[in-house]
Specification:
It is built from 11 helices and 19 strands. The protein has about 475 residues and is an alpha+beta fold. The protein has 3 domains: about 55 residues, no CATH class; about 90 residues, Roll (Pdz3 Domain); about 280 residues, 2-enoyl-CoA Hydratase, Chain A, domain 1 (Alpha-Beta Complex). The chain starts with 11 loop residues before the first helix and ends in an 8-residue tail after the last helix.
Length: about 475
């Protein structure tokens, strides 16, 4: 749907009339149905807008173009509705379209507005923001020496964008930090590979989705194919990592959910009118071949990530592990605006298959596990076993009676050592989410191994009995 009303480009008054006429038409229609106000009240309010516009245009300390004033007015109206509605001019609209294709310029952070400052929803993997140490939940209070308070979200985003190779200075307030943190970042082209994958311990498929763009579902299909080829019948299950995934395209979230679910509802969206309800259902086939799935989520998992997590949780198709998700349960629709711009407007809430709305609530994982660092307990001399006792009987089944000792965790000096890391499918060192320093991932792999031991038949027989993914698109 697009707005087709044309804007005249003559005087400032003509601009005001062009924008307010559309508002008046919409308001009149609403009055007939809701009876909340009269046409007279609406036109009085529009006259007030025109008067304020003229006062600003004539008396503001600096000259501001009429176009900018109109954009500010539109943004004020939309951003006052909720944190995710806003107006984007032509340049911002082009940037949004490029970002959804999987490549754009900037710092690599998904942000929203909270209490007048910019809140980081999630840093994107392998970007300047992630490499600098920006974290989900950080509050950006200053950009290149200018206070964020008083800026719109679009203003802040525009300041963070810039020519590739140029530097930007951010001041960040972080929970738990005694004082604001200062960061210097260098802008770069952000090329998002939305799906990364590898095999853990020879029998667990690890798939990380960093965001939902046009490349996500094709990347997921390739991940399944390559993991199955590498593991054969040894595969015991999958870890789907949605931590710090800020969301993205709704259709991609539906396709990813469909890859694991072979029937039933995936998500429903409900708008202002009862007729606006939409339900999306799974198609036959399960690309994971029915093997157990553990989904990792945290406070940086938002929007489309929560659609996937909620669908798999409600269908009992996966065990959710980690911490509570972000809680963005709304759907935004892009409407074309005159002049090449667009309106991003919240038009619906989405609900999980069981009818849950997670708006401002988030999804609680089945197993809550906070991030932690695995540290070896080096002083284990107090542990005593039967084999330590003088004259203890030998085990008749043992080939020798040499004390093997207790398995110990990797010591601090080894944690994060590159030589202990695996390789991802690009041949690069695996990122920070590996078993050597990722406690949540370690617990997810342990859980899959436990399920595999418990299930009758074993992983080889289970994998052999399952069909392929021919039923999926």
């Amino acid at each position: 749907m697009s707005l087709t009303h044309k804007i005249k480009t003559g005087t400032a008054i003509a601009l005001v009339i062009a924008f307010t006429s559309f508002s008046a038409i919409a308001a009149s229609s609403d009055q007939r149905t809701a009876g909340r106000s009269t046409a007279s009240d609406t036109y009085k309010a529009l006259n007030l807008f025109g008067d304020v516009f003229e006062q600003v245009r004539a008396n503001y300390v600096d000259k501001v173009s009429d176009k900018k004033l109109i954009e500010y007015a539109l943004n004020g109206m939309l951003t006052s509705l909720d944190p995710h509605s806003n107006y984007m001019n032509e340049e911002e609209t082009k940037a949004m379209n490029v970002m959804n294709t999987g490549e754009f310029g900037g710092l690599g952070i998904e942000v929203t507005m909270e209490n007048g400052v910019v809140k980081v929803v999630s840093p994107i993997d392998d970007t300047p923001a992630a490499r600098a140490g920006i974290k989900a939940g950080d509050l950006i209070v200053e950009i290149d020496g200018k206070q964020v308070m008083g800026m719109t979200l679009n203003d802040a985003i525009e300041k963070m964008r810039g020519k590739v190779g140029t530097d930007i200075h951010l001041v960040v307030v972080r929970k738990g930090a005694k004082e604001p943190l200062k960061f210097k970042l260098t802008r770069d082209i952000i090329q998002i590979k939305s799906v990364k994958y590898r095999v853990e311990k020879g029998n667990v498929g690890y798939i990380r989705i960093t965001q939902f763009n046009a490349q996500t579902f094709p990347g997921l299909k390739k991940a399944f194919h390559d993991i199955k080829k590498e593991t054969g019948n040894k595969l015991i299950g999958y870890v789907l990592d949605l931590r710090n995934n800020p969301g993205g395209l709704l259709d991609q979230a539906i396709d990813v959910s469909d890859a694991f679910i072979d029937k039933g509802e995936i998500v429903s969206t409900r708008g202002r009118n009862p007729d606006d309800m939409r339900r999306d259902n799974a198609t036959p086939g399960d690309m994971a071949d029915g093997l157990p799935v553990v989904v990792l989520i945290n406070s940086g998992s938002a929007s489309a990530s929560e659609i996937v997590a909620g669908a798999l949780q409600d269908h009992k198709r996966a065990v959710l592990l980690g911490t509570r998700s972000f809680g963005k349960g709304s759907v935004q629709t892009l409407f074309d605006a005159p002049g090449g711009g667009s309106i991003k407007l919240t038009t619906a809430r989405y609900y999980t298959p069981s009818g849950r709305s997670i708006q401002a609530k988030g999804i609680t994982p089945d197993i809550v596990i906070e991030p932690a660092k695995v540290v070896a307990e080096k002083d284990n001399y107090l542990e005593i076993h039967e084999a330590d006792l003088k004259g203890a009987l030998a085990n008749p089944d043992a080939t020798n009676n040499k004390e093997v000792g207790n398995p110990t965790l990797m010591p601090d000096s080894k944690i994060g050592d590159k030589k202990d890391k695996g390789k991802d499918k690009d041949g690069k060192d695996a990122d920070e989410n590996d078993l050597s320093n990722d406690y949540q991932l370690l617990r997810a792999v342990d859980l899959l191994e436990g399920i595999s031991i418990y299930r009758t038949g074993g992983p080889a027989e289970m994998a052999a009995d399952k069909g392929d993914d021919a039923g999926k698109k």
